[in-house]
Request: fold
Amino acid sequence: SCDVDGARVPCPSINTFTAARDAKLDFVAITDHNTITQLADIAAQQPGFPKTLLIPGTEITTFTGHANVIGNTAFLDFQLGSPRLPTLAPLLDQVKQQEAFISVNHPGLPSGEICMGCGWTAKDTDWSRITAIEVINGSTLRTGGAEGPTSGIRFWDNLLKQGHRLTAIGGSDNHDATDTTGAKQSPIGKPATVVYAPELSTKAIIEGVKSGRVFVDVAGTPGATLDIDAAAGSQRATMGGALQLGAGETGALIVTTSNVPVRTRFTFVSENLAVHDSNPVPAPPNSGQKASQVRFTLNPGATFGYIRPEVRDEGGKLLLLGNPIYIRPR
Reply:
């Protein structure tokens, strides 16, 4: 809802579309709670926003968790625990049938009367059928910081440590697009999810997220880039991809970024890997790029590993968060 002449009224969705365009976003997903009534607005308004893709979606709000479905064009059951939806499985079937994907929202939040179901507590979640985790949420970013106690990063990392492959994304969770200064909530585009895709279409964005070649722009910095090129022998992989390592075999990862503050540094988060010191890689003159290379080996006896990059400012504040390269034994 929006403030209009001192009263709170329902926000027209064109406010969201306009704010996304003005924030120089290539796309924005509209995920009203447990409804698809916004689809008519998306269809009607898309021609007026030729450079901003308006992606349909639904926020599934249950008593044991919230999740965004991105790309659905038909109604989804949301009454988890009812005869219509006794478990998550039928919902996940509907998501697959509609060629959409599902992402768990703000999983690090507590769940109670203030925000019923905001933390993810759904039992027997089949993580192999979940595509993404909202690791940076606009509301928790404002109140506790990107890595505060309610951040979703820890929740995501714990799942990665169990061997799951889940794409990290971010979302502003904006409910009033007229608040562009961040006075009451995070503006649209802060944080932003950046997806490597061959074209600007809903299908391509969905496939890009599923591939994992995605990073989260925590500060919402237009033009910032982050990418990975990893190799082991003749194998090559980009962010979200996988490599196989034999006993004693070494892999290498080059992470590259551009259009970020000058005094930034790379950090790496890994599991079940021996990671060697990072070394700067020369960048083309006047390119604005920074690059670094690390080498790694899989720990003896490990059945999986991963390594993911982060970009931080000189004070250690997280600016960009990248998705992993996954490692399996040969």
Observations:
- The CA atoms of residues 135 and 153 lie 5 Å apart.
- The two ends are 54 Å apart (CA to CA).
- The mean pLDDT is 94.
- Helices lie at 13-22, 38-45, 88-97, 138-144, 153-161, 202-211.
